[in-house]
Design goal:
Largest sheet: 3 strands, antiparallel
Number of domains: 3
Radius of gyration: 26 Å
CATH class of the largest domain: Mainly Alpha
Strand content: 5-15%
Strand order of the largest sheet: 5-7-6
Shape: elongated
CATH topology of the largest domain: Fic-like fold
Distance between the termini: 70 Å
CATH architecture of the largest domain: Orthogonal Bundle
Length: 443
């Protein structure tokens, strides 16, 4: 157990007998529903419900709550004792997320068809950057995006982590319909950690008994999690593959819950020497796409996790400290999904407003959507210099298309072309740029 979180109490025989002999009345049932609505942990009960009507105590209230969760919970893995009690609030959130995450109409209302590819590229970059930063990648978002857009060779381990993450996410998009196998999992891990581990031999292999693997608190370096022994990895893989490939379970498990459990399992079991967290989040993304939740392509769950990383770690710790009750991690993760959708919606609405500011550019005839967006980028930055590769990466188009877009703007007088060397060309604002836009605005 970690000193970062207080363990629930072990009830005395007398307290257990009291709970068995006194079923919850209506008043207590209402209190239990209130506690489950927020999936209360022991410390929440201890400090929020200090004063209760006798003979009820915080310890007894906790005992009633635990009994209810155990009795109505789903046994995810009897081998490990993993259980999940799905509350009414969780069911409501799952219904809402089902509507949103599969809603092509929702995407169509927010994203113009011509911009779809650009939004997908932006989300992929954001997820790769934030997921790596959660694990300690010390590179700014701006520098990381520039590296990805310009296809710059990584300068250090942090940048390599981000590039690997980006490429792995792209791989998982391609593999969304594939059956998960042990070989595919190892391929994903190898792609995620290539060139970032102390020993290259650890890439794409499961940890062995001699590997010392544990999770440290980043600030205090206290060990907060020691995974089960490597000898249990074989049993773990059976559970993992069963969930990934939607094999029949004794009790129905909602697809979103399956994805969340897959995410948790990799983080808890730590099957690899390093790179487990990044792999876990990427596998959640893969499973959700595999299950038809297409909106995930536009979201970054790691962006939300990164902003409140301590809550992410706490959700893991609560599960481990409270007899592997998955409810804490599920409750947290459902909130992350909701916040990710809200963040995407705000971003898309802001971009739509920016589109309205393109009015002068829209009046310029003969430009395609990408060229108008390129002009918008130059409007926002006096010193911007773009290359064909950057346009290719930013808009998800081929090299000839990117060059054609830029050459067309040069021919129209908006941009000047400069030579970096015999092959590479850069494009910057021409001296006529502002004048041409002003002419368009008064038409």
């Amino acid at each position: 157990m970690s000193a970062q979180i207080e363990a629930p109490p072990a009830l005395t025989a007398k307290e257990i007998q009291y709970i068995l002999r006194h079923p919850a009345d209506d008043q207590l049932e209402a209190l239990l529903r209130e506690c489950n609505a927020r999936y209360a942990y022991w410390t929440d009960i201890k400090y929020r419900h200090k004063v209760l009507e006798e003979p009820l105590t915080p310890r007894l209230l906790w005992g009633y709550l635990k009994s209810q969760r155990r009795a109505a919970g789903i046994a995810i893995s009897p081998r490990y004792g993993l259980r999940l009690f799905v509350t009414a609030q969780m069911q409501g959130q799952l219904y809402e997320l089902d509507q949103l995450l599969q809603a092509d109409r929702f995407v169509a209302e927010l994203i113009p068809p011509a911009h779809k590819r650009r939004y997908l590229m932006s989300a992929l970059m954001e997820e790769a950057i934030r997921s790596s930063q959660i694990e300690g990648a010390a590179t700014t978002r701006r520098v990381a995006k520039e590296m990805l857009r310009k296809n710059i060779t990584p300068r250090d381990r942090s940048q390599r982590m981000i590039l690997n993450n980006y490429r792995t996410m792209a791989l998982l998009q391609e593999q969304r319909d594939a059956e998960m196998t042990e070989e595919l999992l190892l391929q994903i891990h190898r792609s995620m950690v290539r060139g970032t581990l102390e020993r290259a031999a650890d890439e794409g292999r499961f940890r062995a008994a001699e590997d010392e693997v544990y999770v440290e608190h980043q600030l205090t370096h206290e060990v907060v999690h020691t995974p089960p022994p490597a000898t249990e990895l074989s049993d773990f893989m059976q559970l993992f593959l069963s969930l990934c490939n939607d094999r029949e379970q004794p009790t129905f498990i909602h697809p979103i819950l399956r994805g969340i459990i897959i995410h948790f399992l990799i983080g808890y079991m730590h099957p690899f020497v390093d790179g487990n967290g990044r792999t876990a989040r990427a596998l959640f993304y893969w499973y959700m796409l595999r299950s038809g939740y297409s909106l995930l392509e536009y979201l970054s769950i790691s962006q939300v996790i990164y902003k409140g990383k301590s809550q992410y770690e706490e959700a893991y710790l609560k599960v481990e400290t409270d007899d592997l009750d998955l409810g804490y991690f599920v409750q947290y993760h459902l909130r992350v999904l909701r916040l990710s959708i809200e963040s995407f919606k705000r971003y898309a609405e802001q971009k739509l407003k920016e589109q309205e500011c393109l009015t002068p550019i829209l009046r310029i005839g003969g430009l395609n959507e990408r060229q108008m967006q390129i002009l918008r980028l130059y409007q926002e930055s006096e010193s911007l210099v773009l290359t064909g590769r950057e346009v290719e990466q930013r808009f998800g188009v081929s090299q000839p298309t990117a060059k054609s877009d830029l050459k067309g703007l040069v021919e129209r007088g908006f941009l000047d072309e400069i030579a970096y060397n015999k092959v590479k060309r850069g494009y910057l604002k021409s001296s006529h740029f502002d004048g041409l836009l002003n002419e368009a605005s008064v038409r």
